[in-house]
Amino acid sequence: MTSVAFALPERLEAHAPPAKRDGVRMLVAGRRDGRLQHERFRALVDVLEPGDLLVVNTSRTLPAALPLGDGELVLHLSTPFPRGPARRWVVELRRGDAPFDGAREGQSLALPAGGRVSLRAPYLGGRRLWVADLDVPEPLLDYLARHGRPIRYRYVPAAHPLAAYQTVFATEPGSAEMPSAGRPFTGALVTALVARGITVAPIVL
Question: What is the pTM of this model?
Answer without folding.
Answer: 0.84
